[in-house]
Amino acid sequence: MQLTILGCGTSSGVPLVLCKCQVCRSKDKKNKRLRASVWVRLKGKSFLIDTSPDFRQQSLRENIKRVDFVLYTHPHADHLAGIDDLRSFNFVQKSNIPIYAHEWTERELRNRYPYLFQKNTRLVGGGIAQLDLIPFDLDGPEFIAQGITIQPIPVDHGTQRVAGFRFGKAAYITDCNHISGKSLEKLQGLSLLVLDCLRFQSHDTHLTFDQALDYARLINAKKTVFTHLSHDFDFKKASRLLPKNIALAYDGLTVTLRSK
Ligand SMILES: [Zn+2]
Ligand SMILES: [Zn+2]
Ligand SMILES: [Zn+2]
To answer: Do 150 and 137 meet the contact criterion of CB atoms below 8 Å apart?
Structure first.
């Protein structure tokens, strides 16, 4: 399995527009963070978790050649707004792309992108993304997406519930401030965990650095990578605060796991 961090930035990205802080002015490429999503290659399939507003730029940078399906964590714009750019893959693949969404995401998709999901949309201009919306149960058991076994992991994102995903020995858990005991059980025995870590100060809907560290230790994956990072984190300085098996993500980071 290969997992590539397409973006590891919080909703505003880093640098923040107009911010003059040291991290936003830094020349270190690892302090340039597009909006959060990942690209996974597993068992001959190529899939995405979320389509960020930077998806077009991210797919060009990583030379993504195929998207077999997309898993959506939740419908906040920083995780969804690149959805229209899936149409470039439709043009080449000449087939619909299945997208998997739980109830909240499905509802928001239908409200905010009616033209993508109404069968009788009149096409004007260059066409629209051809997507098959497939609902999944956030609290349900594993489901099979195009031959890949996916375990949804519900986590709390303020008052909302968001999907994390486990696939084989890897899991992606973004945008959360609490993980229940039941979900923690589903995260045992991981080789790779990608985990939300917004900033140092407390936040109503995201894990802080200390909270992310606590969960990382509790889950105890062989390797943990922190993502959804704000401009609080200078890559070099913050990396020094982390134990050996925990790292800050950076855009373009690819982790390879041998089995599954
Ligand atoms: Zn987010
Ligand atoms: Zn800044
Ligand atoms: Zn969010």
So the answer is: no
In terms of Cβ atoms closer than 10 Å to its own Cβ (0-12, 13-18, 19+), residue 204 is exposed
Q: Which two tokens stand for residue 149?
A: 């076994």
Q: Which ligand is nearest to the CA of 8?
A: 1
Tokens representing 140? 């349900």
Place of tokens 């239908």: 110
DSSP state of 178: B
Q: What are phi and psi of 45, to 5 degrees?
A: -105, 155
Which of these CATH numbers, 3.30.360.10, 3.30.1380.10, 3.60.15.10, 2.30.29.170, describes 2-250? Answer: 3.60.15.10
DSSP, res 48: E
What pTM, to 2 d.p., does this model score?
A: 0.97
Domain ranges of the chain: 2-250
For residues 81 and 85, what is the distance between their CA atoms, to the nearest angstrom? 9
**Which residues have CB less than 5 Å away from ligand 1 (the ion)?**
11, 78, 175
**Residue owning tokens 């963070």:** 33
Output the CA 5–ligand 3 centroid distance in Å. 17
pLDDT in tens, 151-184: 999 999 999 999 999 999 999 999 999 999 999 9
